[in-house]
Amino acid sequence: MTAQQMPTLLLRVPTPDGVAVAAGKIAQLLPKTPLLEASVNGTSVWFKAESLQPVGAFKIRGAWHRLTDLSEEQRARGVVGVSSGNHAQGVAWAAKRLGIAATIVMPVDAPRTKIEATRGYGATVVLYDRPGGENRDAVAQDLIDQSGAILVHAYGDPWVIEGQGTTGTEITAQLAERGLAGPTRIVCPCGGGGLTAGLALACPDAEIVPVEPEGWDDVRLSLERGEIVPVPDFKFPTQCDALQTPATWPINFAILKARVACGYAVTAAEVRAAQRWAFAQLHLVVEPGGAAALAAVLAGKVPIDGRTAVVLSGGNTDPADFAKVLASSD
Amino acid sequence: MTAQQMPTLLLRVPTPDGVAVAAGKIAQLLPKTPLLEASVNGTSVWFKAESLQPVGAFKIRGAWHRLTDLSEEQRARGVVGVSSGNHAQGVAWAAKRLGIAATIVMPVDAPRTKIEATRGYGATVVLYDRPGGENRDAVAQDLIDQSGAILVHAYGDPWVIEGQGTTGTEITAQLAERGLAGPTRIVCPCGGGGLTAGLALACPDAEIVPVEPEGWDDVRLSLERGEIVPVPDFKFPTQCDALQTPATWPINFAILKARVACGYAVTAAEVRAAQRWAFAQLHLVVEPGGAAALAAVLAGKVPIDGRTAVVLSGGNTDPADFAKVLASSD
C-alpha cells in the first residue's frame, strides 16, 4: 500500500496530547508494567517489562486506543490487522473485549505460539506467504475491499503511535515514584517505528534510541539518509520476527526525523546474549525482537546512565526456540 | 538445633502488627512486585510475581526486616544465614546494603546460579554436604560459636516470618487497586513455613494453602497429625531445592496449626507443567520450588475463584535445567 492509498489514516497527526488521552484510557484498563532496576557494568538501568502485558507485548496499548476511538458504525464493520504476531494479539485482545470482529493477516512462518494465541482471542487468522514474498498489505486490502472492515495498521496509524507512546508516560511516572527525573534516554526495539515515534511524543526531553536487527535496520538507514529506505533484502534471516517490517511509514518517519539522531543494529548473537541475560538477571522470558534494545546496551553500542530506560517489548517465543537460546553460549 | 537452643529467637512471637511494620519498611525499599492476572480454565487468578524481586525471590523481605532491626552492636558482629539459595541471596543483598558482614551456609548441590549470585553480593559462602546428610544447623552453630555472629534463620525467626508476610499485604492492596476485596485464598509454595506463617498473619480473612513437593511434604503431614513431623526421607529426589527443608519449626507451626486447614503435595511432573505454563502464559521464569503452588492449582488440587492469589516465589534456576523443562512435555 502506498501513502496515497491511506487517506483516512492521514486525516490527523499523532500528538503528545493524544498520548495523554491514550495514557488515561490505558491506566483505566491495565496496571503499569513493572520498571525493573538492574545493574549493567555497575550502572543502574531501568527495564520496562512490556513482556508482562496480558498479550505478552506493548501492542495492546495502541490497539486499545485505536479500537476504543472507533464509532459504533465502524465497530460493526469489524477490524483487520496485519502482524507477525504481537500486534495481532493486541488487536484480537482489544476486539474481543469490545465485541468487535477481528481478522488478522499473519505470515505463515510466524511463531506457532503467536498464531495460536491470536486465534485463542477469537480472531480469524488469514495466513500469507511471507517467505515467498507475498505482499501482506495487498492481502489486507483485499479483505477490507470485501468486508468494509477498518484497517488497524501495526505502526502507520496515529492512534497506534499514541497508544504505544504510553509506555514512555509510564516510565516517566515510575521514575518519579523513585524520586528521579524523567528518562534521559529510552532504548527501544524498532520494527516499523510505532513505538519509537510514540516514545518521542511521550518523552520530549529524552533521547530516543531505536534498535533493529542486522539486515532489517531500515529505520537506521532511513535516519542516516534523511528519507525512507526499505529493507534491502527481505530474505535476510533474522530470529526477530517482531521486527521484520519492510519499511517505516511517512507518519512515523516525520516524527523520527525530527526527534531521533540515529538508530543501531544488533547481531543475532547479541540478541541471544540479551535473552540469556534477561533470563538470569531479571527472570523474564523475552522474545528475540523484544531483546534488541537490551542487546545494544549489553554490547556497549548505546551509552547508559542512571536514568536510561530499556524497553523489553515482548515475550512471545516458542519454548523450543527459547531452550536453544538458553543452551547457546555465543 | 532444637527449640531449646534458640532462646533469643523465641523472645517474641511474630504478629500482624509486626507484618505492618515490615510492610512499611519494604514499601520504602522496593516497589511492589506485579500481581498478574491470567485465566486458569476460564477463571481469573492472580499471580504474585515474587520472582521479579531484585534477588529473584521473596526472601529479600524477611531478610530486610530482620537486618534493619539489629542493633549497631549486633550489626558489627555480622550475620549467618542457612539456605539453599534464595534466603542466602536475600540476606546477602540486605547485608551488603546495610554494610553488615554475611556468611551463608549453603548445600554443595545448590544451583550454581544461586551460589554465584550469593557470592556476587559479597557474602562468604560455606558449603555443607547436603547429599551426605551433614547437619546444616550444626555447621551454622559452629560459625556462630566462633564469631559471635547473629543467626538469621530462613524461616524459624519472627522477623523473617513478618517480613515474608508483606507479600500478602501487597496482594491485598493490589486487589483493592482493582476494586476487589482481599484474597479469599492464597496458595503458596512451602518449605519451612516462613512465607506460609507470614501470609496467615498478613491476611487473617484468607484461606492459606501451602504446597510442597512430593516427598518433602512435612508441613502437610504435620498439619494432618497436629504435631511437627520431619521429612521421612531426606534423600527423596526433588527438583524443588528451595523447598527442601527437613522440618518446620515451633514458631511457624503454632501459626499454621491455628490458621491452615491442610497442605498439598505436587509431583515433579506437575511442577514442570507449571513452569512451562508460567513461561507460555505469563512470560516468567519460575524456578521449580517457586512453581509449586501454581502446580497444585493447574492440577486441580486446590479450588480457585476470582480472588485466589498464587505466589510464584522465586525465579532462580540454571539455564540448562530450565531448557530441559521447556523441552519436556509430561
Characterize the structure shown.
- 2 copies of one chain form a homodimer.
- With 330 residues, chain A is an alpha/beta fold.
- The first copy, chain A, folds into 2 domains: 216 residues, Rossmann fold (3-Layer(aba) Sandwich); 92 residues, Rossmann fold, CATH 3.40.50.
- The first copy, chain A, contains 13 helices and 10 strands.
- In chain A, the strands form 2 sheets. Chain A has a 6-stranded mixed β-sheet with strand order 1-2-10-7-8-9. Chain A has a 4-stranded parallel β-sheet with strand order 5-4-3-6, with helices on both faces.
- The first copy, chain A, is globular, with a radius of gyration of 18 Å.
- The first copy, chain A, starts with 15 loop residues before the first helix and ends with a helix.
Rg of chain A computed from alpha carbons, rounded to a whole number of angstroms: 18 Å
Largest interface (C-beta under 8 Å): A-B, 33 and 33 residues
Count every beta strand of chain A, where a strand is a DSSP E run of 2 or more residues.
10
How would you describe the oligomerization state of the chains in this entry? homodimer
**Which structural class is indicated by helix and strand composition of chain A?**
alpha/beta
Count the domains of chain A.
Answer: 2
The percentage of residues in β strands of chain A lies in 15-25%
The CATH topology assignment of the largest domain in chain A is Rossmann fold
CATH class type of the largest domain in chain A: Alpha Beta
Main sheet: strand order of chain A: 1-2-10-7-8-9
Mean pLDDT of chain A: 94
What is the annotated CATH architecture of the largest domain in chain A? 3-Layer(aba) Sandwich
Distance separating the two termini of chain A: 39 Å
User: What summary fits the major beta sheet of chain A?
Assistant: 6 strands, mixed
Our count of helices of chain A gives: 13
